[in-house]
Amino acid sequence: MGSNVVRLSSQSAVGTPVERINYALDIQPLSTFRKQASALIDRLQKSRRPLVLTRNGRSAVVVVDATEFERMVERIELLEDLEIAREQARRGEAVPQDQALAYLTKRLRANADAAGGWTDDDE
Fold it and tell me: pTM of the predicted model, to two decimals?
């Protein structure tokens, strides 16, 4: 691994590798972003790496592709759900797997029926 690259995470919560920040390319002053916004956004979308913008030599904001942002939010929500489930299990509020699966299948069927139908292929 090059000295100007840092690994954010080895793998995401949903199995998709997280892209690395390249210090030489992905940290830019806000003034550069103002002048080259379109080109920097194009590069960000192609690379899927976040862009760190600095102000007065310090990191100020991170610009992320909209699709990557959505994936990040989904990962955070999944991790929050897992933490809630872990806490519920710790308190003895867990349910057996077959009961949980039956409940989720029922909810998915209801949602699918409302959206146009459930098929046996959905199980």
Answer: 0.58
